[in-house]
């Protein structure tokens, strides 16, 4: 309710304290100011609070050691991390180590593939091996080495033989589901060996992983049945050089993309 250039000052509770024509004094008092038309002429500036910076110290990265180990024709890359407890009074825990197969002979690769100690730890090995084995071996040769490994364990304790057989059934199931084109009539002889072994140990009768061994044998048989015609193979033109087994173009595009993704995911 101002008059002219005067302004009415309202105190706490709406009490009229008196007219002023200077808003500077009002700001010093810390009250709002109403002009002649009832508009707000200005509010007191908010108090300036001191700025406080908060810092969060990130824990130091665990020291990493990497080295190679050779074992029975295979080369493993070992990664060890030493984690330090935040409390200096807590004893130092043992380092955590992981081991991945980097190279090896074909026999060593198959041994690692069926090794029950590493099954589930080196998660990328089986899928990478099954997708790329055709570059350096054949399906019958790989099946033969798997049969050799299982037959060599018949004299070992029953528990070890059963665990290895379960791993072999899991590998065959994954192989058939992921790469059914690998199983042709040329693999029949080695599949006969595997089926005979599974029959002797009781797995082909339904014993084993999920009782699906009998179904697996039937599915493999349907793939290698000599009565079923094989897929026609492209004819090589006269004078064409033989296909290079190390050429990346021999792999399906989705298999190659899958392996590149896996390599990127496990890169340290």
Derived from helix and strand composition plus strand pairing, the structural class reads alpha+beta
Biggest sheet, strands in spatial order?
2-1-3-4
User: What is the total number of structural domains?
Assistant: 3
Q: How big a fraction of the residues is strand?
A: 5-15%
Number of DSSP-assigned strands = 7
Q: Gyration radius, to the nearest Å?
A: 38 Å
The dominant shape is elongated
Number of helices: 8
**What percentage of residues falls in helices of 4 or more residues?**
25-40%
Along the chain, the helix and strand elements come as: EEHEEEEEHHHHHHH
Keywords: Guanine-nucleotide releasing factor
GO molecular function: guanyl-nucleotide exchange factor activity
Pfam families: RasGEF_N
Organism: Homo sapiens
Written overview of the protein:
There is one protein chain. With 268 residues, the protein is of the alpha+beta class. It folds into three domains: 7-42, no CATH class; 60-103, no CATH class; 105-226 and 246-268, Up-down Bundle (Son of sevenless (SoS) protein, Chain S, domain 1), CATH 1.20.870.10. The chain is built from eight helices and seven strands. The strands form two sheets. Strands 2-1-3-4 form a four-stranded antiparallel beta sheet. Strands 5-6-7 form a three-stranded antiparallel beta sheet. It is elongated and about 85 Å long. One of its GO terms (molecular function) is guanyl-nucleotide exchange factor activity. It comes from Homo sapiens. Residues 97-221 form the N-terminal Ras-GEF domain. Pfam families: RasGEF_N.
